[in-house]
Amino acid sequence: MTATTSESYEDVWRDASPQVLAALVRRYGDFDACEDAVQEALLAASRQWPDEGVPDNPRAWLIRVGSRRLIDARRTDRARAAREVAVADEVAPGGTSEHDDSLTLLLLCCHPSLSRPSQVALTLRAVGGLGTDQIARAFLVPESTMSQRISRAKARLREVDAPFALPPPVELPARVAAVAHVLYLVFTEGHTSTGGSGLTDVSLAEEAIRLTRRLHDLLPGDPEVAGLLALMLLTDARRPARLDASGALVPLAEQDRSLWRRDLIDEGVALVEDALPRGPVGPYQLQAAIAAVHAEAGTAAATDWAQVEVLYGMLSALTPGPVVTLNHAVAVGEARGPDAALAMLTPLFDEPALRRTHRLHAVHAHLLERAGRLDEARAAYAEAARLATSVPEQRYLQALASR
Amino acid sequence: MKYVILIHSNPQPWGHPTDQLTEEGRAQSQEFHDASGRAFDALMEEINASGEFVTAMALADPASSTLYGWSPEQTLRTDGPYAESKEQLAGFFMIDCETRERAEEIAAHFAQPGGTIELRPSMWGDGDDQ
Known about the structure:
The structure holds two protein chains of two kinds. Chain A is an all-alpha fold. Helices cover 69% and strands 0% of the residues of chain A. In chain A, helix 1 packs across helix 5 (98-109), helix 2 (31-52) crosses helix 3 (58-74) and helix 11 runs parallel beside helix 14 (283-296). The longest helix of chain A is centred in the first third of the chain and has 23 residues, at 6-28. Chain A is elongated. Chain B is of the alpha+beta class. Chain B contains three helices and six strands. Chain B has helices at residues 23-26, 30-49, 100-108, and strands at 2-9, 53-58, 66-70, 75-79, 88-96, 115-121. In chain B, strands 2-5-1-6 form a four-stranded antiparallel beta sheet, with helices on one face. In chain B, a hairpin with a 4-residue loop joins strand 3 (66-70) and strand 4 (75-79). The radius of gyration of chain B is 17 Å and the shape is flat. The chains are: A mainly alpha, B alpha+beta.
């Protein structure tokens, strides 16, 4: 027994939970029921560990409690239950490695038969070990909605009879890409919407980084997984500088760079530098490389915009779309001046996905201002402020419009 | 991104589904209402399965509302409705969509006789630093 804080209790059981789930699924099949049993075992841990201390083998403890719940739920006869619990005391899952089990579980939660929001919810619950209530609060949806989403996802997996096994090698890259996308969505939700608001007890950004680290440990040779982890670390490194003392958003160019997390930057840069030459180059690696260029500039003025422009050009070739074009135009504006960038923007005003977003108008305003067209810039800032859907961004844009 | 779909309507008498109780709605055939009911159920099934549905609420008669005005001296409490306008807020749906286009696609399904549907994006307390 070890004395620990309540936070580290949670770390212990959440770290153990995917292995506990995998062990139960291996032994009893029925992912749905096993997943419920693990949640109940985690709940029991949250009640008992703070009083009784963390058991010497937390995983074995959770497997035992989970097995018991599962067996109770199945209402099998007492003799069989006792036998099963005795078996459950042996921790090692027979036949397969823990490594495969962890990966199998991630891939199953991101199964192609599930919608993205379902994949996100199931991954956070089954792999992240988060409770439905915590996930619901983090995404600002009612708990009943989240609970229904998770039940439907599990029912769907049963319906398509998704096996608890690694997919054939030919399917693996697409399946891993789906996991990466789910973790990316968790991170962006945490980073841009609810991060630091103090309203939730779970940091989705931190959770995404934790799970991506795990995926990277499982697949160290996958350059896009490394790129994704690097992108998250390099973005998260700016978090201490993103808000000023009054809680207002500070744009990248105006951030106090001495507040950036050097440790995360170093780790992110090392990851992306290691991944890029290995190839094939993918969008996460390119976005990480762009974040690395920003991270390595001592001041905003020292940013190597020519390199950012090249990287956005490559990203644009790989994943063309209006949002990438907009970011590319920002880099072109900085590297070559506002006129070339304004020309790139013109067709974007006809894009349904962009024309009513604040960002297009904010970039437009900034370029007009740099081109000396101040009246037009003011009008564009005002339009951007009207369309902004974030309170701090709107305040910032209103301030620019009324100068 | 979360959006609300606001249903402005004036059913007489007040009730739900509003589209059957407006003057324009009553002018439609039973077949029309049956078909739109089925289409609505299918839409609900779809956005539940996709994870885009967040929550929804039908609202009671605006005559049952209580209004609170403010002046430096006191808070003024009066009985509703809020405004004598023809259409009142009758209910709302909250959805969570990856793109504005998708939210518009869903909201368009709510168009109904005798009502006006309004799609509004939510605002967040935080934002992107780029």
